[in-house]
Amino acid sequence: MNYPVSKRFFDVLFAGLGLLLLLPLGLLIALCVKLSDGGPVFYTQARIGQSGRPFRIRKFRSMVCHADTLGLPVTGGKDPRVTCLGRILRRCKLDELPQLWNVLAGEMALVGPRPEVPRYVENYSASQREILRWRPGITDLATLLFRQEEELLRGAADVETFYLRHCLPRKIELNRQYAARACLAGDVWIILRTVCPGWLGVGVFCACLLSVSWVATLLLAGGFRAQPLDHLQSGRGLLLMAGPPLLLLGWSGQMRGLLPCFNLPELGRMAAALGVAALFQMGFGLFIHRPWTPDNGLVLIHLMVSFLLLSGIRLSLRLREESPGSWTRQDPLPVARVAIIGAGSLGRDLALHFKGRTGGGKKVVAFFDDAPCLWHKRVHEIPVAGMPECVLNRDWKGRLDEVIVALPGSAAGLARSQELAALLENSGLEVLFLFPGPVLCGRPPKEFKTPLCSATLS
Description:
Elements: H1 3-21, H2 23-37, E1 42-48, E2 54-60, H3 84-92, H4 99-104, E3 109-111, H5 118-121, E4 137-139, H6 141-145, H7 149-153, H8 159-180, H9 184-195, H10 198-221, H11 236-251, H12 264-287, H13 296-321, E5 337-341, H14 345-355, E6 363-368, E7 378-379, E8 382-386, H15 394-397, E9 402-405, H16 411-423, E10 430-435, E11 439-441
Parallel strand pairs: 3-4, 5-6, 5-9, 6-8, 9-10
Antiparallel strand pairs: 1-2, 7-8, 10-11
């Protein structure tokens, strides 16, 4: 069975199951929307589908009535047209549930390029119109990476112009990348990532590591004999040993950041979370005696194994991501608030350099990067606010004194630096360009022959 046929069978099967299983939730949402302001439950809008054919997309209404006559087709952060209930629905992507009917009708697929309104499609270039060859979908790669698109648009002087110039071309390019390697397994992975936010994936990863460390603890305590594994028969021993550390790791912010961003402060927070969890587990065993309750010796062994396993894997991920090259740090002119364009190893090292300083008033308040997979994540507790063009939005221009462009010195990085030089020329901000070496200057050099870093985050 070829991919288009299997994809259509997959879409019909799971869209139908989804409508049946989610019917109670859909009825509850419909009731809440109706009671909120008495307006219609559903919102329909003309979109352009496969081969340029228009169709009506369906959503639970998340904006005030007749919102399309009160503003633009795109919404920025804190758009007054979005209702309080609508913000919750949009954040959880529950407003998209009625599109399962569009899938059954053959107008959409579960995974495919998000359909745009006719006025935007009219301005597509010939190469961009290639995405109309595929059936549009409820979710796609661009949906994942632009999950918080409203935050990217917040503060833009002209929301629609910013969207058309900077967001839409990137979405189209992501869709073309998806189409080049589309497969059913990839579709399933995109659906899972759409349903599960990034922090949940990190949480599952940490839960698996804590479970592995508990099994390793039992094997170590039993001399690699099978008898100690009786603790796992009911599963309560595993829940006690993995649950509290997982909750405390989440509370300490370990789920919000990127796993490869690992330094001494992160190590300290992880050790503190695991240590407090171990104290709780020992206290639990002291007051509640059950066959599955571990003794203090097992708790301490599990603490050490968990710490070594978690820190070892995170350190290995950091070493894999970082460039083998190094550069000598210099102290640029001191200013108060800095944004770094480029969240790769070069930008991260620079942020750590400023973060570790005791004076000079240099503070990195945000990263900006071209890689959508980094947007709205945290790198060394510093948010990645969005694409570099977001620096020009009103909300950021008033909060920055200096922008440092820290892109790799490759041909692509140098070309992108030239684009950013033109973009930021009249921004009113002090702009410096940092290349491996380093080179700090007001504009990127036209030729750069110093050895360059070869690895950046993708």
